[in-house]
Amino acid sequence: MSITIKDIAKAAGVSHATVSRALHDHPAISVETIDKIKRLAATMGYVPNASARGLKTRRSRALGVIVSNIDDPFWSEVLQGIDEVLHPTGYSLFIAATHRDEQREKEIVQTMVQRGVEGVILCAPQFSQVQSQLLQSYGLATAIVNNEGAAESRYLVFNDDHYGIRLLTRHLIDLGHSRIAYLGNRIGGRTTIERETGFREEMHAAGLEVDECCILMAPEGNPPGGLQGAQKLLALPKPPTAILCYNDNMAIGVYAALYEAGLSVPLDISVAGYDDIAMAQYLIPPLTTLRQFKRELGAEAANMMLRILEARSEAGELPEPQRLRIKGELVVRGSTAPPRA
User: Fold this and answer.
1) Do 326 and 157 meet the contact criterion of CB atoms below 8 Å apart?
2) pTM score of the predicted model
């Protein structure tokens, strides 16, 4: 049976109002009484009732986090950054995955509202605009990480994809590669378009022609997608000397395709990824990639959410729109080298 304030009051020989005030450090209660009651509460195993407190304050101290897939190593690090900021503030997190299913999106939004969350951090890049607007119609504060609806978002934290892909492309060009393939993600939406655009611009800036046969969209941004995409690139009459991947997950699949074909990385073909997930440095050879500051993306989104909630609580209105662009950094490892003569 859970311990209540009345139980503590009976044990301490005071009113339950005194216990309530002591637990909240009310200035009318002496320091000695506060210490005594808090020690007694801890000894008896008292846990504050968050739901009851929420009814009084109209603050649930709960936030929703919506992701595409929980098992995606990129988003797991973003979630870590969110949790590191919000856990010390006493907020609880409800995490749900859409799996890119519109019906699930609708159900998740309804569940978040029923749970009484104060706001939602959206980490689902392909989350539909309809559901995003529905979140806002319920009055939920919304902060977004790397979402397709970036143009319409008031509070957004995102990676500079254009900058990052140009760094990777320039690295391969500087090594001497001129026939470079870009292996994108068909369902990557705005992100894959921006990265393809940056790739093309850097190639053109170097005076290099882009062979359209070397621009390929894999069915998904995962290892099977990378495997299938690499197999098609290797089947070209003139395969590329380097493959630039939409993300590190796809690069893992590319490694598998090259291994099956009896080719060596980077002796026969250089491979570069994007994201710098934890596994990237442990591949053989370790993967050259673009390091996104994933925990920072999550932490900044969480801090943005706290600022929104604070402003709404104190001033009754939303703060000015905030859009934070974070630039990644090139990480050169053993998977890239000059092309074979």
Assistant:
1) yes
2) 0.77
> Is residue 215 within a helix (H) or strand (E), and if so which, with residue range?
strand 215-218
- Look at residue 318 in the predicted model and tell me its pLDDT: 75
Confidence band, pLDDT 50/70/90 cuts, at residue 230: very high
Asked if residue 53 is part of any domain, the answer here is: no
Measured CA to CA in angstroms, residue 25 lies from 38, 211, 292, 314 at distances of 10, 70, 43, 21
274 and 175, same structural domain?
yes
In the three-class reduction of DSSP (H, G, I as helix; E, B as strand; rest coil), residue 65 is classed as strand
304 domain residue, yes or no? yes
Q: What are the tens digits of pLDDT across the range 285-314?
A: 999 999 999 999 999 999 999 998 888 777
Which CATH number is 287's domain given?
A: 3.40.50.2300
Distances (CA, A) of 152 to 78, 130, 133: 22, 12, 10
Strand 289-291 and strand 329-331: the pairing is: antiparallel
- 283 and 301 in a single domain? The answer is no
Return the residue matching tokens 């799996």. Answer: 99
Q: Is 236 in a helix, a strand, or coil?
A: coil
pLDDT for the residue numbered 151? 52
255 pLDDT exceeds 90? yes
Tell me the residue range of the domain where 81 lies.
60-158+295-325
At residue 48 the predicted structure's pLDDT band, cuts being 50, 70 and 90, is low
Q: Is there a single domain that holds both residue 127 and residue 218?
A: no
Total structural domains within the chain: 3
Q: Which two tokens stand for residue 209?
A: 């022609």
Is the residue at 331 inside a domain? no
* Residue written as token pair 């370790």: 286
184/161 Cα distance (integer angstroms) = 13
Check whether residue 149 and residue 204 sit in a common domain. no
Based on the domain organization, do 239 and 279 belong to the same domain?
yes
Interacting residues of 242 by C-beta distance below 8 A, sequence separation 6+: 172, 175, 177, 179, 180, 181, 269, 270, 271, 272, 336, 339
Looking only at the bridges linking them, the beta strands covering 155-159 and 322-326 are: parallel
